[in-house]
Specification:
Elements (H helix, E strand, L loop, with lengths): L5 H19 L13 H9 L12 E5 L24 H9 L39 E5 L3 E6 L5 E5 L16 E7 L2 E7 L19 E10 L2 E9 L8 E2 L3 E5 L15 H15 L7
């Protein structure tokens, strides 16, 4: 997906610098082309660590990368834990998915014009795929936790008011999620996911029967850990047990904002017609 926000953000940033620099200095974005700005890095270095509360998960969180990334993209799905064997249905879905994004393995990647990644049509990416899309923010209230992803500023609600997931829920792009505290761990259960979404950019499938169990831990003021187990008997022959995924709090905590990073259907269609289709050897529809 093209980063549609880059041009407008740069233009807006320059305009604001010229006319209202003091206001701009109060906001620090988590990422941009080439990383955080020098001003944002300086502000993060100078900002004090927030007071530690193991039950306060609020803030903007960025994935802690591990391993050697020079050899290509690192799969972040399930913390990099290998997928269990697929069922016949799962294999059929996996083979039908034609990924074209950089997250995909080179052996599976096809030219975007020949692919069928939902991202190419600006469909919601769903969960847990949206964890790949850059930093995310957690907003906490007494009754729910709201997870806001940078890609599309998509919202996932995690209810913490004691409710249960109804048995007859209709599938949604980001499922239905409830959670409760067990000591200093937030235990989450979610299901009811629309199977049109992929689990990641490599095209791993799931069915509407998928269920996720997650454990959120906040071991220190700057760290968030997520352990995830995926259950989907229709797609996989056994549970997919993930490795621990770690995220770092971005400072300043109260002044770091997510970019407005949207996949705009009209722009995507124009880009497909002018760039992707010709590059893939497909004639323009016009």
């Amino acid at each position: 997906m093209r980063n549609h926000f880059v041009g407008p953000v740069i233009f807006s940033f320059v305009a604001l610098v010229c006319f209202s620099w003091p206001a701009v200095a109060q906001v620090y974005f988590p990422a941009a082309a080439g990383g955080r700005s020098p001003e944002a890095k300086a502000a993060a270095a100078a900002a004090p660590k927030p007071k530690y509360d193991p039950h306060d998960l609020s803030g903007v969180w960025a994935r802690v990368r591990t391993g050697d990334q020079r050899g290509g993209p690192i799969d972040t799905l399930m913390g990099g834990a290998p997928a269990p064997p697929m069922t016949a249905w799962g294999k059929e879905q996996f083979n039908a998915h034609k990924p074209s994004q950089h997250e995909a393995e080179e052996s599976r990647r096809v030219p975007p014009a020949l692919g069928n990644d939902p991202l190419g049509k600006c469909d919601p990416l769903g969960y847990p795929r949206n964890l790949e899309g850059g930093p995310f923010e957690l907003l906490q209230t007494p009754t729910k936790l709201m997870q806001v992803f940078q890609e599309g500023l998509r919202l996932r609600e995690i209810w913490t008011d004691g409710r249960k997931i109804p048995d007859d829920v209709d599938p949604r792009w980001y499922g239905w999620a409830v959670a409760h505290w067990d000591g200093d761990s937030l235990i989450e259960e979610s299901r009811g996911y629309d199977e049109r979404t992929w689990l990641d950019g490599n095209g791993y499938p799931h069915s509407e029967d998928m269920r996720l169990e997650e454990r959120y831990r906040h071991p220190d003021a700057m760290t968030l850990e997520i352990d995830m187990t995926l259950y989907d008997e229709k797609a996989y022959t056994k549970p997919w047990v993930g490795k621990t995924q770690r995220f770092q709090l971005l400072l300043p905590k109260d002044r770091t904002e997510l970019y407005e990073w949207y996949c705009v259907p009209s722009e995507e269609e124009s880009f497909n017609e002018g760039v992707r289709n010709p590059a893939g050897g497909l004639a323009s529809k016009k």
